[in-house]
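Weekly puzzle thread! Below is a chain. First person to post its structure in token form gets bragging rights.
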Amino acid sequence: MLYLISTPIGNISDITIRALETLEICSHILCEDTRVAKKLISFLYSKKFLKNTNFIYISLHSHNEDYRVESLDSDFLHKNNVALISDAGTPCISDPGFKIIKDMQTKNIPYTIIPGCNSVISAFALSGFGDKNFKFIGFLPHKFQERVSLFHKILDDNSIIICFESPKRILDSIEILVNISPDREIFLAKEITKVFEKFYFGSVRVVFENLKKSNLNGEWVVVINSNCDNKKRQSLGIEDIVSLSIPPKIKAKILSKLTGQGTQECYDMIINRNK
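Winning reply:
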């Protein structure tokens, strides 16, 4: 039997009784990082939350998930109780595991979930944006121009948007939003349930100014409110893009995508404006 077990996203006391009881009957743990999993189990044992620490750890991450799907045969999963955990939170949500679930569905192998902490639902509850529909889109793209295009697309939606962002890119991403929809409501949660938990909320413009003065280290969840007043949102214009503090080549790629002009043509225009 496979058990998807949610683990704490910060505060270790958030582990559930049912999660502990299930771990006690498991012989194997499928985990993102065996070192992180062993540290969690060791800590739970030191607090006397767990009696058993004699687990066999099997790594399951984005680079080996296909291999694991092939190597874990039906007999193994029928004969053993196996826990599937991620480094923090609920497995399969922006974490490995979904390929194994699909494989088990195909082979008709039983599995279940031990629910618990989830940063997406926690951030939505904390945002105060009400009971409207929301969409979770995972991590924002690494590339700047891809984030610009994505924001233009998702801000047309009437749903609340929830996403993850890296501390290295959070300021740049909110600056993009400032140029597109500065007065829209936004909620940011950093390090939910951890010692340095902090929330930012208000208009995108105000939150951006607060972020510029803040320590950005940590894990971020971004909640963008829908355009409640249904006013036409502000477009990111040529002057907005030209004024951004990014290399001219990236500006040219963004302008090319938004205007339909060639990248070289956009690049020449940017260089000529700066002369």
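Puzzle host: Confirmed. Bonus trivia for everyone else. The two ends are 67 Å apart (CA to CA).
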